[in-house]
Amino acid sequence: MLEAMRANPSDLAVRVRGLRKVYGDLNAVDGIDLDIARGETFALLGPNGAGKSTTVEILEGYRHRTGGEVSVLGVDPAHARLDWKARLGIVLQSTGESGQYTVREQLSHFARFYPNPRKVGEVIAAVGLERQANTRIGKLSGGQQRRVDVALAIVGRPELLFLDEPTTGFDPEARHEFWGLIEELKSEGTTILLTTHYLDEAARLGDRGGVIVGGRLIAVGRIDELGGAEARIPLVRWYDEAGVRREERTERPAERVVELARQLGEPRELEVIRPSLEDVYLGLVHAAGSPSPAPESAKEEEPA
Amino acid sequence: MSILSHGVARTGYETKGYFRSPDSVFFTFLFPMLMLGIFAAAFSSRGDIGLGPGSSDHVSVAGYYLPGMLAAGILLSGVQNLAVDIAGEKGDGTLKRLGGTPLSPISYFLGKLGRVFVTGILQAALLLAVANLAFGVSLPRAWSAWGTFAWVFVLGTVTSALLGIALSALPRSSRSATAVVVPIVLVLQFISGVYLQFSMLPAWMQNLASVFPLKWIAQGMRSVFLPDGFKVLEQNGTWDLGWVAVWLVVWLVVGLVISRLTFRWIRQDA
């Protein structure tokens, strides 16, 4: 798939080279290269203030970049026109307050902006809000309002859908239902750029992912290969006779455990750990020496 | 063409939202009617307002305050309501969401302008009906008076709406919007002859008010609804309708330029 992408750039939904964004003397985005193929779901991970939102907002056309090349659906967002926006769907981090309109009114209104919108009734059904269709949005629960956000983003039949931390604040059941909805969109061929703090979400939805730390993309690849094979070598952990915690990485953990048993009898608090995506991710972020994120996150929050 | 048709769709959408927000309905739509009622009730025992001995021109208290309340309604529906509303939409993410859709900013503003017209016309009609039916104010019969009413209303409304859009850039957050906008609008109403008789104000205050548009809207409305003899109470002893038009057009252009220069879907970064 990657080879095919390189061969034909028109198959790319997003192409970014050397992207930079400077706020004052802070490099919020510091040289990012990124390719997202059409039909692909790409998960962008990273701590708060790492430059995720800034990067995504540049791709969405909300912010101007300081340097680098950006092409989204073949167009430079900095010079994009309204017909380009008609091809995007954007689910923002925060929800706009349009509480005085009903779900159906809001969707019918937004559908008018697009040249080839989906049927409002179908969109309402797709996000599972049939029973709330004539309820004012202000009276819905947080999870239901988030579904309205998604409905508004997909009513224009977007080629590329941006999802910025879509399930923050969801209960587990709502999150699983939401994932089902996104998977349906994936199966229809929609390209999706997802930013999230939840690694299980990235693993469930993402074909590929990338980790941004300190404005740089420090790892890109298939989610189950992020961080490389080495980061996934199982870990054996135990306490030795002196009560000191020991750990060792080994491809053959069972063998090591048998050996330990022979030497120590039953080792105290013996564990064999297969690094989860979360372990791999945290390892990556720590190794990159995640710089103090506070000033940047302040910068990022303020304009949003 | 879609810019225009989207603007029409926005007008319907905006108007619906306006009448579903109780505080905007009260503070900008019904407020002038309430004030007219209060003034009429408070001062009517003093009898009609006249020009003094030697003149037969006189008008009831409600009749005297009606033009001022019409002018205040135009200002509230335009400046106060739009400035607070748009600053709020900037703060709560509504504008950012619209900025991510193919909606043209021009359609967005046509929708705001359309809503101000719809609510302004309803408000003026209601004010005239209340004044006529509840307080017995007789309305002008001459077509020429209604012609003047129409252009002062249209020009005043467009100017107020554009100034409201321009002013929406001033509050730094949606929470401070009311605190920033309401005092400006309130002071203007006091110095421009809405609550206080303009002819009673000191000359310096009249001159100050003459820089701002509300005084001219109010003066235009007085020319429509007060007996012609009352023009002697105006600053130059005439209705000065030419200057009403000039000052409103000047403020319209100012509002248009500031709106054009300051409007962004989101607060911009460096």
Describe the protein in words.
Chain A has 304 residues and is α/β, with parallel strands linked by helices. Chain A has 11 helices and 12 strands. A 6-stranded mixed beta sheet of chain A has the order 5-6-7-3-8-9, sandwiched between helices. The relative contact order of chain A is 0.15. With 270 residues, chain B is mainly alpha-helical. Chain B has one domain (2-41, 58-262). Chain B has helices spanning 2-19, 22-43, 61-92, 94-99, 105-135, 143-167, 174-191, 203-209, 213-225, 241-262, and strands at residues 49-50, 58-59. In chain B, strands 1-2 form a two-stranded antiparallel sheet. In chain B, helix 6 runs parallel beside helix 10 (241-262). The A-B interface holds A 22-24, 60-63, 82-83, 85-86, 88, 90, 92, 94-98, 100-101, 105, 109-110, 112-114, 152, 156, 299, 302-304 and B 6, 9, 13, 16-17, 20-21, 88-89, 92-97, 99-104, 265-270.
Global structural class of chain A:
alpha/beta
Summed over residues and divided by their number, the pLDDT of chain A gives a mean of: 86
What is the count of helical runs of chain A?
Answer: 11
How is the main sheet of chain B built? 2 strands, antiparallel
Largest sheet properties of chain A = 6 strands, mixed
Give the oligomer, counting copies of the same chain as homo and different chains as hetero.
heterodimer
What coarse outline of chain B follows from CA principal-axis ratios?
elongated
- Alpha carbon gyration radius of chain B: 19 Å
Which ranges of chain A are low-confidence, i.e. pLDDT below 50, for 5 or more consecutive residues?
Answer: 1-5, 292-304
Give the % helix of chain B. over 70%
What ranges of chain B have pLDDT less than 50 throughout 5 or more consecutive residues? none
Query: What distance lies between the first and last C-alpha atoms of chain A, to the nearest angstrom?
Result: 35 Å
| Strand neighbour order, sheet with most strands of chain B | 1-2
Structural class of chain B: mainly alpha
| N-to-C CA distance of chain B | 35 Å
